[in-house]
């Protein structure tokens, strides 16, 4: 008997269990084994191991899919790293990274390699079809000009390509081979100087690991830079991994890719593609058949035998972080993969994450800039900050906002009314001097709990009574933020009964088809006023949109989440970038009670650097990321006291064993304490040393894994993105 370690999706010994087989199986082979009376699919993780349990107890592997290619070593190393870094059981991490078809206990159907067609020797000696049959002639010409083109590309030239190929093949005029160098179409544009420089710099790093931060305002032509570099890598026959936020992976983007890379075998990995299709695309990537792999965060786990370039668009986007099970950050793993594969990686954004910006500042990443919009005519928007502190608002609208919206409607423009929902927590501030209430113990802002008349810190659980005056200026009229914006749509419908008002949020665009439909309506000019939250801010280019009204930006500024201002800034920049993209400058009106806040001046000047430098200075002061590192340990229970007690009990156990420079904050109730009939609390471990932080987390996990209180569920989140 040969003993094997098998990675399984089971909650036992990190999902690595020992099974026996008559012969040695290759590592990475899929197998089916019995587990608690049921067949379970797993991956061979190690062969020829010495069992550490009684061999009589070791069960046999039932089936080994040896006809399938094993999951490659580089992929297994990636999974091992992800499991270790995110402190997640390896077997379960593997399950989170595989498509359904590879988790089923049956063999997969391997995808056929794509065929590339061209003219054979005899074909080349034939007289081409006469030019007056111009479609037929064009197809012939394409076949004559190429080393090999796949059917989809030929169908673009002549929709009858399938039938004609068959006819010509019968004459012996056609060759079909399973590998070819794609014939790439040049860009429709001539890249401008900044684009050319960026592309050239990236190309100097081919064949070695080098991260680039491509910083360029919305519309500056980042995508054309990615395409230019991608074309070079694809022309060399190597693979490219292109990651995008879910919301940017639109049919429009795919069309743009297809227009440029029609003859490149492409795999699209998206959480919404059907399981069967996703499995096939995963396999095509793994077998090297697909050369261009486009996808959302989950595609960072696609096995890629020959990757020569990784691109992460909108690298600051929070959708790259998975917020359940294996809580990975796809951007960070993408950098790891580029290093593993010794290839360049391009992180692109108009508002880079402060983590990436910091790395570009200290030289770990190379900064590339596109300072101007690509259409020379496109102008930056005019941004006005309106102090609404002393104004009477009508359902959240100032009189100025209402008249701008009316006027824009009369002039045939399209308006976006933008609501900020995320990172929102009720807070107290001074309407006179703008003072906000920070926690005396840590860097978080305190949250207003009206019923108990307290300010509470959700980071360290400090509590104090609501003050009756401003500690800075003595003003006794302290204001609470959080006016409702629920009635915005009604308000607008009453104001302009003739206008087409459409709301966009998670509910109204639950399906990708909903979004595609809405997008079509907007493009066709069927929408006058769009009411939306974060979703609408990203990546969409609406020619008629020329006015953006931001109703309630302030919530983020008092948020207990230290990243809230960063997100607000990115969203305001994006939302204002939406306005006036074509030829006329757009207008942006931001309502706020804190007009002096640096976020707003930076948005007004459209100046990311100004914001980033100031925000980083503040982070540094408090040792917050990217200067220090964090891990959250969360627990939920029927009531929050149980969750807090559970965490505090372990905190006390671990405290004397903590390595130097690691601090524990909390336990504190989570901001949204109740979720699905459970109540949640969390503790933060913080340190400027990742190593010490991971050591402390291991201490926690030793206790957590032994603790068998059935009422409590717990999880850990390394580098949490949401507080
Ligand atoms: P980003 O990805 O930075 O938002 P895009 O690459 O989408 O920018 O480019 C914005 C717009 O400018 C697109 O409509 C694109 O087709 C156009 N564009 C990009 N590069 C050029 C160029 N060199 N010359 C003219 N137009 C360009
Ligand atoms: Zn605190």
From TrEMBL:
GO annotation (BP), single: DNA recombination
Domain (Helicase ATP-binding): residue spans on this chain: 203-370
A GO cellular component annotated for this chain's UniProt record is:
primosome complex
GO terms (molecular function) for this protein are:
3'-5' DNA helicase activity; ATP binding; DNA binding; hydrolase activity; zinc ion binding
Q: Summarize where Zn(2+) 2 binds, as residue positions.
A: 439, 442, 457, 460
Q: Supply the Gene3D superfamilies for this chain.
A: P-loop containing nucleotide triphosphate hydrolases, PriA, 3(prime) DNA-binding domain
- Catalysed reaction equations from the record: Couples ATP hydrolysis with the unwinding of duplex DNA by translocating in the 3'-5' direction; ATP + H2O = ADP + phosphate + H(+)
Q: Where are the transmembrane segments?
A: none
Q: Does the keyword DNA-binding apply?
A: yes
Q: Which residues bind Zn(2+) 1?
A: 430, 433, 470, 473
Q: Which residues form the Helicase C-terminal domain?
A: 465-622
As recorded in UniProt, its EC number(s) are 5.6.2.4
Quote the Pfam families the UniProt record gives. Answer: DEAD, Helicase_C, PriA_3primeBD, PriA_C, Zn_ribbon_PriA
What does this protein need as cofactor?
A: Zn(2+)
Under InterPro entries, the record lists: DEAD/DEAH_box_helicase_dom, Helicase_ATP-bd, Helicase_C-like, P-loop_NTPase, PriA, PriA_3primeBD, PriA_3primeBD_sf, PriA_C
Query: Cofactor binding mode, per the note?
Result: Binds 2 zinc ions per subunit.
The alphabetical list of record keywords is:
ATP-binding, DNA replication, DNA-binding, Helicase, Hydrolase, Isomerase, Metal-binding, Nucleotide-binding, Primosome, Zinc
NCBIfam families in the cross-refs:
priA, PRK05580.1-4
**Family of this protein:** Belongs to the helicase family. PriA subfamily.
Which HAMAP family does its entry note? PriA
- Its biological purpose: Initiates the restart of stalled replication forks, which reloads the replicative helicase on sites other than the origin of replication. Recognizes and binds to abandoned replication forks and remodels them to uncover a helicase loading site. Promotes assembly of the primosome at these replication forks.
Subunit annotation: Component of the replication restart primosome.
Identification of the protein by name = Replication restart protein PriA
Organism name: Neisseria animalis
């Amino acid at each position: 008997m040969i003993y094997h370690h098998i990675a399984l999706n089971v909650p036992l010994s990190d999902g690595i269990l020992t099974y026996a087989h008559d012969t040695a199986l290759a590592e990475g082979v899929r197998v089916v084994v019995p587990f608690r009376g049921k067949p379970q699919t797993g991956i061979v993780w190690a062969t020829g191991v010495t069992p550490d349990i009684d061999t009589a107890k070791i069960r046999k592997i039932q089936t080994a899919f040896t006809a399938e290619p094993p999951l490659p070593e580089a992929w297994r190393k990636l999974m091992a790293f992800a499991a270790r870094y995110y402190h997640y059981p390896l077997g379960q991490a593997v399950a989170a990274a595989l498509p359904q078809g590879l988790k089923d206990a049956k063999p997969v159907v391997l995808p056929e390699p794509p065929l590339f067609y061209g003219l054979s020797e005899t074909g080349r000696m034939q007289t081409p079809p006469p030019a007056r049959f111009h479609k037929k002639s064009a197809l012939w010409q394409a076949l004559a000009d190429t080393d090999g083109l796949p059917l989809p590309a030929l169908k673009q030239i002549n929709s009858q390509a399938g039938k004609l190929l068959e006819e010509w093949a019968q004459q012996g005029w056609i060759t079909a081979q399973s590998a070819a160098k794609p014939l790439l179409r040049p860009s429709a544009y001539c890249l401008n100087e900044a684009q050319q420089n960026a592309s050239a710099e990236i190309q100097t790093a081919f064949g070695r690991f080098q991260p680039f931060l491509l910083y360029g305002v919305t519309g500056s032509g980042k995508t054309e830079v990615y395409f230019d570099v991608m074309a070079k890598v694809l022309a060399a026959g190597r693979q490219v991994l292109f990651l995008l936020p879910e919301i940017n992976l639109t049919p429009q983007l795919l069309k743009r890719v297809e227009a440029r890379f029609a003859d490149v075998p492409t795999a699209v990995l998206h959480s919404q593609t059907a399981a069967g299709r996703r499995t096939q695309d995963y396999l095509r990537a793994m077998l090297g058949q697909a050369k261009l792999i486009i996808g959302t965060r989950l595609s960072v786990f696609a096995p890629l035998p020959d990757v020569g370039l990784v691109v992460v668009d909108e690298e600051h986007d929070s959708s790259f972080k998975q917020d359940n099970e294996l809580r990975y950050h796809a951007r960070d793993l993408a950098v790891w993969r580029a290093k593993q594969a010794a290839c360049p990686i391009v992180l692109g954004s108009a508002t880079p994450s402060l983590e990436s910006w910091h790395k570009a500042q200290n030289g770990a990443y190379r900064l590339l800039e596109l300072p101007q919009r690509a259409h020379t005519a496109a102008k930056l928007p005019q941004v006005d900050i309106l102090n609404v502190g002393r104004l009477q608002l009508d359902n959240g609208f100032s009189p100025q906002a209402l008249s701008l919206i009316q006027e824009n409607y009369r002039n045939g423009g399209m308006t976006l009314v933008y609501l900020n929902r995320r990172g929102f927590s009720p807070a107290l501030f001074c309407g006179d001097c703008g003072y906000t209430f920070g926690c005396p113990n840590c860097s978080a802002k305190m949250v207003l709990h009206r019923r108990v008349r307290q300010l509470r810190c959700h980071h360290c659980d400090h509590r104090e009574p609501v003050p009756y005056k401003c500690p800075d200026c003595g003003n006794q009229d302290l204001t609470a933020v959080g006016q409702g914006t629920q009635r915005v749509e009604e308000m607008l419908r009453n104001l302009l009964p003739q206008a087409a008002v459409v709301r966009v949020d998670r509910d109204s665009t639950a399906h990708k088809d909903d979004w595609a439909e809405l997008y079509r309506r907007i493009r066709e000019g069927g929408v006058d006023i769009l009411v939306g939250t974060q979703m609408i801010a990203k990546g969409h280019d609406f020619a008629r949109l020329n006015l953006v009204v931001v109703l309630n930006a302030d919530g983020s500024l008092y948020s207990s989440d230290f990243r809230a201002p960063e997100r607000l800034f990115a969203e305001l920049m994006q939302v204002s970038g939406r306005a006036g993209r074509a030829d006329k400058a757009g207008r942006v009106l931001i309502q706020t009670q804190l007009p002096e806040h640096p976020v707003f001046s930076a948005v007004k000047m459209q100046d990311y650097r100004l914001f980033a430098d100031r925000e980083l200075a503040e982070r540094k002061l408090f040792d917050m990321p990217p200067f220090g590192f964090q891990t959250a340990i969360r627990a939920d229970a029927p009531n929050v006291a149980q969750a807090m007690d559970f965490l505090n009990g372990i905190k006390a156990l671990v405290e004397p064993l903590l390595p130097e420079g690691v601090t524990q904050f909390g336990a504190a109730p989570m901001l949204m304490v109740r979720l699905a009939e459970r109540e949640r609390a969390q503790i933060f471990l913080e340190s400027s040393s990742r190593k010490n932080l991971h050591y402390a987390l291991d201490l926690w996990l030793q206790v957590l894994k032994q603790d068998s209180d059935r009422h409590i569920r717990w999880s850990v989140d390394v580098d949490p993105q949401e507080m």
